[in-house]
Every structure is written in C-alpha cells, then in structure tokens.
Design brief:
about 375 residues, 14 helices
Length: about 375
C-alpha cells in the first residue's frame, strides 16, 4: 500500500473514533427523571470476576516465579535451562501484573505496593544505580525477606528482576544476580499474596468494603462511588498507556524499558484487554456497558465503545517490531502513532461521553499533573 493510501486508512480509522467526541452534546442530561441503574450488581461482578480473579492469577504467578528463581540459584546459576525457566516465569508474572496494574485503588495503595511491585523508571539508569548501591552497601542485612521492603523501590520489583535476568552488554556477575534475585522474587510473592488476601479474605476484606458502602464505610459512601473507581481505572489505564508508555518512546526510543525485546507491546496488549473487560464485562460477569444500556440516554455509545476497543486492539496487534525498533521504522512508526491516536480518542470518549452516560464524573487523577 502506498504512503498516501496508508495515511487515508489511518485518518479514516481515527475519524471513526473521534466522531464520537463530536456527538457529546447530543447526550441527554442527567436528572431526576433519568432511569436508575444497578451500580451494586456491576460492582459485585467486577470485583468477583475481574479484580479477585486477576489478583489470584498474580499471586499464583508470583509464587511460580519465586520457586523457579530459587531453583535456578540453588542449582547452580550456570544452568542455561534453569535460567530459561526463570525468564519464562518472569514473563508469566509480568503478564499477570499487566492484567491488573490498572486497579489503582484499594489495598495496592497501602505500603507503596504498586510502586514496589512495578517501578517505572523511564530507562534503566535508576534501577542499575539502586541495585549497585544495594550490593555495595555494608548493611547486607537489608537483603533479607523481612527488611527488603525498606529498600529503594527501584530495586524491589519486576523491572529490577528484568535488569538481572536480561542484562545488557555490561552483564552482571552471576553471583550478584543470585544475591538479589531470590529476595526480589520473595518480595514480589509477598506483595501479590497480600493484595489477594486483602481483597478477598475476612470480614474486613476490601471486596466486602467495596460492596457495602454507606455512612459507616471509611472508603465509599455509595455504590456509585465504587463504580466510579472502576471508571477511573479504565480512564487512567488508557492515559497511562498513552502518556507513559507510548509518548516518551516516540520522542526517544531509549526510554523504552521492558526487556526482553517485544515486552512493551505485549504488556500494552494485555492491559488493553483488561481495560476492555471493565467496560464489556467478563464472560460470566457484567461490565460498565450494562449501565449504559440500563440508563439508555446515549444509544449510540455502546456500539462506538465496542468498535473503538476492537480497532485499538487490532492496531496494537499489527505492530510487528519491538517498540524501540518500531518507532525508528517508517512504516511501523505510523502504526504506533495510529495506536496513540486511537487510545487518546478512546480515553476522551470515556471521559466526555461514557462518564456522563452512567451519571458519573471522572475529575482529576494522579497522571493529570498540576
């Protein structure tokens, strides 16, 4: 296909998304005469079929990673087969995190668990410095499961594990790799198990807290407020892909960091699928799309949202090169730019139409800046 033809296809696909934004003014205003919606039922489905299922997968993957890393280090770190097993377990854990990292409310906010599990460094320098300082420190007692939680967040999580499992030309000595990898893996296992337990278990589990809002609830006053947390997760998740994962790499390919090659796009695809699930619902559950149907104030919105998610995910699937190489390649860069445009448009539809259609207001989030 010629360049002009590609550009026409690009613009056509983007216009299909952006046209939804031009129709904002046609949506009926919220009011007392608007149909009521069952926020509680949607929350219950999303908590049980989306959040807890995904945190369960994270806890399982973290346990596998910890076990595999210990087997690699205990069995002699020279084994290429065991190293391949550890790398495969890392990939599985990173997949699981990509599927739940958009849930930014609840237990993940406590004890900096989100940042400790995945610290986004915009380059490897801060991770390398944190690991080097830790290994050089006279206080080796911090390299224990009990005290490692107090180490730099840059040294604690998945990116630090990736730095050790996929070293660059300045390869880390194997003894250093196995000095830190097991404690990093234990730390990740502890965080993941804690997140699952804090959501699922006991009378004070966050699932119960979220499903019983009211005046005596320290977190949520109403079921609508819980639904708003999921809507914000969808909105901020899309913004994070655009502003943190795509825009910096389009400016400077060296800012990409998710080894091995191809990991960045794999993570985005998994995250997009997870975000789509909040709207569409799981196979056995319900999603925010049910609320759009219940209120019925914007009949064109649901088909638009479904088409937007489908087109965006299809674009992500067409990018054939790892992200740092794709942005340097003329043809592939056009696809990356198209993906950014589609994600940005989808986020704006969520903010300007979806929120209004379900009678909620997104407001600001942590990524908006000053």
């Amino acid at each position: 296909m010629s360049r002009p033809a590609r550009l026409i296809v690009h613009l056509h696909s983007c216009v299909l998304l952006l046209v939804g934004l031009l129709l904002v003014g046609t949506t009926a205003r919220a009011g007392d005469d608007m149909p009521s919606v069952d926020y509680a039922a949607i929350n219950k489905a999303l908590i049980e079929d989306h959040v807890i299922v995904r945190y369960g997968a994270l806890a399982d993957a973290a346990e596998i990673f910890a076990t595999t890393v210990k087997g690699y280090c205990a069995g002699g770190a020279g084994s290429e087969e065991k190293l391949a097993d550890a790398r495969a377990a890392y990939q599985g854990l990173t997949d699981a995190w990509a599927g739940v990292a958009h849930i930014r409310f609840g237990p993940v906010e406590l004890l900096m668990r989100g940042a400790r599990f995945y610290f986004w460094p915009q380059g490897r320098g801060r991770i390398a410095a944190a690991l080097t300082d830790l290994m050089a420190s006279a206080d080796r007692q911090i390299i224990t499961r009990e005290r490692f939680r107090f180490a730099s967040v840059a040294a604690q999580g998945l990116p630090a594990a990736a730095f050790l499992l996929y070293p660059d030309a300045a390869e880390q000595p194997r003894m250093d790799r196995c000095l830190l990898l097991p404690v990093i893996a234990d730390n990740l296992e502890e965080i993941a198990a804690g997140l699952l337990s804090d959501w699922r278990d006991g009378a004070n589990g966050f699932a119960r807290v979220a499903m019983t809002p009211g005046p005596d609830n320290d977190y949520f006053d109403s079921h609508a407020e819980v639904t708003l947390s999921f809507l914000k997760a969808l909105h901020t998740g899309l913004q994070s892909i655009a502003d943190i994962e795509l825009k910096p790499v389009l400016r400077d390919p060296q800012l990409a960091f998710l080894p091995p090659a191809g990991r960045e796009l794999r993570t985005m695809r998994i995250t997009l699928a997870a975000l789509a699930e909040i709207y569409l619902g799981t196979e056995d559950g319900r999603g925010i799309s049910d609320l759009v149907e219940q209120r019925g104030v914007d009949p064109a919105l649901d088909p638009l949202m479904r088409k937007a998610f489908r087109m965006t995910r299809e674009t992500a699937d067409t990018i054939a090169l790892p992200l740092p190489r794709a942005v340097r390649d003329k043809t592939e860069r056009e696809k990356v730019e198209k993906l950014l445009t589609q994600i940005t448009a989808l986020r704006q539809i969520v903010e300007r139409r979806l929120a209004r259609a379900v009678d909620l207001q997104i407001g600001f989030n942590a990524l908006d800046g000053d």
